[in-house]
Amino acid sequence: MTGGGPADATNTMVFYIYRNAFEWFRMGYASAIAWVLFALVFGVTILQFRYQRAWVHYE
What we know:
Layout: H1 13-23, H2 27-50
Helix pairs in contact: 1-2
C-alpha cells in the first residue's frame, strides 16, 4: 500500500481514521471522526429513502 501517496493525495477518510487510531494512538479523535462519517452516511441514506420515487412491492 502506498500509505496515502505523496502529501496524502490519495488518502481516504477510513484510512485516516485507521492511522489516527492504530498508528498515532489517538483513539478518541479517530472515534469522533468515525461518528461524523457515520452521521454523514446515515443522513444521505435517509435522504435517498425519503425522496426515492419508485418502490418495489412483492406479493
